[in-house]
Design a protein that fits this description.
heterodimer, A: globular, B: alpha+beta, Alpha-Beta Plaits, four-stranded antiparallel sheet, elongated
């Protein structure tokens, strides 16, 4: 029995509800005990965790749309057999954009200068470095650029998904040519805007400005690599899940192998950027640059700093190196979960040292929000998957994907 | 190296070649090799060749490179000739990563090339027998090794019947100029290859 249309199973629903329930409870408790607390440290913890999770998961689901657009521009056909999966994942972008926007509104208009200390006008007036950056780091620019970014990601992504629905209908040769051209134009638009945001300004604004005195030219690429590899891992998890549930009959281990190659390659790419950023700063040893690595490498975050490298480089590198392990459902799922957790920790160590300093904690609230976001992803991606057939049967590149052979 | 007798069948098309491979193996003949003008996807599976261990060799060669680089630099910079470079510790691991990486890649690459040459028995001045000059152009050349009990005439007509356009018998020196290697070939199994 071929199943073209995804239906949410009882087990899927149950787990979504459990995750949402536990996560929601953690969030409510967090609001009560941390967000509304008089203790400034508890408040900072509350907002830091929200900032870390909302940016991380937004960028991770957005990586799916990047993947779609890149393969579209490269005229790649191999991913067509499972392309509806990244499409469903990217349909979460508008939802997570709103969540992230709420967090930013809370941060900027709540004047959380413990997180973004460039928000403190008096402090900036006496700080020549922050004064010099104030054309870029100011509330107006931050909010306007963030809103433009989130709107365009959501809008162009929705356009790409809508275009993809056309391939459910029969089309003649002229129509297919036009279809491919339209796809190319919108994918190119997305990529250009993606380069202006994820690959440059957005990580500067959202994350690097936590350590406002410090800067690194590798930072945005590093953030991009981090979220892209986690995004590919998320796609792999859903592909394996659907395959296990007897969907996606045309996806073979060849396709999974290629997803595995992406996870392997971009884990190495992430390490390359991590190292490029670290080594130059370590070698030059200039105080204004080493200030970023001092608390992370020699201070209270030492454990997390090295754990980050082990989870995100050593383990994926060794576990995914063999051809067989990239074709095995169990190892792929295990490594994918590991990669997502690893890059969540990576984001944790990007945010926390600048906001909480040595008072950080990795406890019920941090993991609670992580669980909450996992539940949200399951809920919205599941809903997105039910909306369309799992294979765009009349897409001109489908055949290429069916006979794909690595 | 020994002189062996081979029956050579030439095929014009991949589509004929694949069923022919299955039939030849089913009949119990030993395929010595198939020479193709370009890499044919799935032919290794159809021939029942075991998976190569070249990548395992590559990993080990890489490991040798890593260990060599790290131990040598550690010995030089901490034991043999410690130098104060910009106040850095003598054991300056972050600074050594590029060299370690490069030596790993170098050892893995060169090691794999040499292993590949050895497995393929390619070396300067070793002359390899060509079964058909068009094998590098547009012909798929299947070479079947003859044993003591092989009936050449029967095999030739069998190859013709499965679609070979040209069949002949050749005696050639084949085998290993150094070392021993028994080519493993699994028995034919019915599998569904998409």
């Amino acid at each position: 029995m071929i199943k073209q249309q995804f239906e949410i199973s009882a087990g899927y629903k149950k787990w979504t509800n459990i995750l949402l329930g536990v996560g929601g409870l953690a969030f409510v408790l967090g609001v009560v005990f941390l967000g509304m607390s008089k203790d400034e440290l508890a408040q900072t913890r509350f907002w830091s965790v929200l900032l870390q999770n909302s940016t991380f998961f937004l960028l991770v689901v957005n990586a799916s749309m990047f993947f779609i657009c890149v393969t579209t521009l490269a005229m790649g056909g191999w991913q067509m057999a499972f392309r509806r999966v990244p499409e469903a994942i990217s349909s979460v972008v508008p939802v997570f954009s709103i969540l992230a926007l709420l967090v930013f509104v809370g941060l900027i208009f709540g004047h959380k200068h413990n997180i973004y200390h460039w928000l403190d006008k008096e402090h900036v007036a006496h700080d020549p470095i922050l004064k010099g950056k104030s054309a870029f780091l100011n509330p107006t620019f931050f909010m306007v650029w963030t809103i433009i970014t989130l709107t365009l990601w959501s809008f162009v992504g929705a356009k790409m998904r809508k275009l993809s629905s056309e391939a459910d209908e029969q089309m003649d040769q002229e129509a297919s040519k036009k279809f491919i051209w339209n796809n190319t134009v919108w994918a190119a638009t997305f990529i250009v805007f993606f380069a202006l945001t994820v690959a440059s300004t957005i990580p500067w604004l959202w994350l690097m400005s936590i350590d406002a005195h410090w800067y690194s030219t590798m930072y945005s690429w590093y953030t991009f690599a981090s979220t892209f590899v986690a995004g590919m891992a998320l796609v792999a998890i859903f592909v394996v899940y659907l395959k296990n549930q007897d969907y996606l009959e045309y996806v073979s281990e060849e396709h999974l192998h290629d997803l595995g190659k992406f996870m392997f390659a971009f884990s190495v790419f992430w390490t390359y950027l991590w190292y490029s950023q670290f080594m130059l700063i370590w070698y030059a040893n200039i105080p204004e640059e080493t200030v970023y690595f001092k608390p992370r490498m020699q201070g209270p975050y030492r454990g997390i700093f090295f754990l980050n490298l082990i989870i995100n480089f050593v383990l994926p590198f060794l576990l995914l190196m063999r051809r067989g392990s990239k074709r095995n459902f169990t190892t792929m799922t295990f490594v994918a979960v590991l990669i997502i957790l690893g890059h969540w920790i990576d984001f944790y160590q990007m945010v926390m040292p600048g906001t909480l300093h040595e008072h950080y904690s990795l406890g019920w609230f941090e993991f609670g929000i992580l669980i909450f976001y996992a539940g949200l992803i399951m809920y919205f991606v599941g809903r997105g998957l039910t909306k369309k057939p799992l294979l765009a049967v009349h897409h001109p590149f489908v055949k290429e994907s069916l006979i794909h052979h690595t | 190296m020994a002189l062996k007798k081979f029956v050579v069948g030439c095929f014009e098309d991949e589509k004929v070649l694949f069923p022919a491979v299955a039939k030849v193996r089913k009949s119990g003949y030993k395929i010595h090799d198939i020479y193709t003008p370009f890499p044919v996807h799935g032919l290794d599976k159809a021939m029942g060749l075991r998976e190569t261990s070249l990548h395992t060799a590559g990993f080990l060669f890489g490991l040798i490179g890593t260990t060599t680089a790290v131990t040598f630099m550690t010995w030089v910079f901490t034991k043999d000739w410690p130098v104060n470079i910009g106040g850095k510790p003598n054991f300056a691991l972050p600074a050594w990563i590029p060299i370690t990486f490069e030596l790993t890649v170098l050892c893995a690459a060169v090691g794999m090339v040499l292993s590949f040459l050895y497995i393929c028995q390619l070396a300067p001045f070793v002359k390899r027998h060509h079964f058909h000059p068009r094998a590098t152009d547009d012909l798929f050349v299947m070479v079947i090794e003859c044993g003591d009990k092989t009936n050449e005439a029967e095999l030739s007509s069998f190859l013709n019947s499965v679609g070979a356009t040209e069949v002949n018998t050749q005696v050639a020196e084949e085998g290993w100029w150094i070392g021993r290697y028994d080519k493993e070939q699994e028995l034919y199994k019915q599998t569904n290859i998409a």
